[in-house]
Amino acid sequence: MKYNIYKANERGTADHGWLKANFSFSFAHYYNPQNINFGVLRVLNDDYIAGGMGFGTHPHDNMEIISIPLKGALKHRDSMSNKWIPLYTGEVQVMSAGTGIQHSEMNNHPTEEVNLFQIWILPQQQNVTPRYNQKKFESSERFNKLQILVSSIDNPVEGSLTIHQNAKIARIDLDENSLFTYEVVDKNNGVYVMVIEGELSIENEVLTKRDAIGIEQTNSIKIESKTTSELLFIEVPMKF
Fold first, then answer.
1. Is 164 annotated as a binding-site member?
2. At 205, which helix (H) or strand (E)?
3. Which of 5, 13, 83, 129 sits most deeply, having the most CB atoms within 10 A of its CB?
């Protein structure tokens, strides 16, 4: 097993007033040559967006983009439908940019802050037809068990959203002092584990809120929660 620890306070940051962002990997004006990506996982941003604010219309292509609101709600509009679609906490959004798409993402509330994870994954196939989907995932379905949010379009997990990559995104909410073993789907994949909330131990490393660990060259990952904890798993190929 090979792994690296990424502490929450070592992430890149940006403060634009209306947007406070934390970057797990190099992004925008934050550049760390030692931390560009984790395999095909290119972006994991932890964004806080003020009420009524957001990202105006901008382009993307050849990227799988996943948004996970943790608090509050977003609204999304793109060049495929040109209508605003709300995205609430508990829901997950996937967008395959493919040949090219224009989209906007705004806070759906005029005064309350929204907090979300935005994830970019490099696709295994270029220039696909752009597509968009979202789905609600009940928190009760991930209590002490893995809940698959996103899987590969070529090998989909029933009930999950799909993207053009041999990847898996999942969540689990662990009770205090509980044990869980994450089984890696593909030996060529690595797993980036983000602690959303709580305190836990992985490979005798203690991680707390927004700490992360990138693990590769293993078939399984053993986790021991010290408090009630929420985790995000992003399993991706380590080679482009």
1. no
2. strand 205-208
3. 5
